[in-house]
Amino acid sequence: MARPGLTIRTDLASAAALRRLARREPRRRTMQRLLAVANALEGMSRAEAARAAGMERQALRDAVIRFNAEGLAGLVDRPHGHRREILSEGEQAVLVQRILVGPDPEQGEPSN
User: Fold this and answer.
1) Alpha-carbon distance 54 to 67, whole Å?
2) What confidence tens digit (pLDDT) does each residue in 14-25 have?
3) Would you put residue 90 in left (φ > 0), alpha (ψ -120 to 50) or beta?
4) What residue ranges do the domains of the chain occupy?
5) I need a labelling partner for 69 at 20 to 30 A (CA). Which of 9, 18, 53, 109 fits?
6) Are 19 and 38 within 8 A, CB to CB?
7) Crossing angle for the helix pair 46-53 and 57-70, nearest 10 degrees?
């Protein structure tokens, strides 16, 4: 079993189930977390489990905390924040409409 400082909930999935999920996971970081947690559930030390999955020990610790709190969803990357939109929704709608309508052939092309 895992070390006392790394208690992992076992009611959600077994190590074998986590490995099956990891094989089908398209996202590399999520796959690494699944494998690392599976390694730890099989009794590897934190350092060994993380190294075998290609991650740092601290990243495994963080993944276990998220797994314990949120289940499998805790092992998926969270969306990052993004910058605020420059155009308001109304301005975006006007721009989309102008693009869809296209240029007015009666007015001709603007000069440079």
Assistant:
1) 18
2) 999 999 999 999
3) alpha
4) 15-75
5) 53
6) yes
7) 100
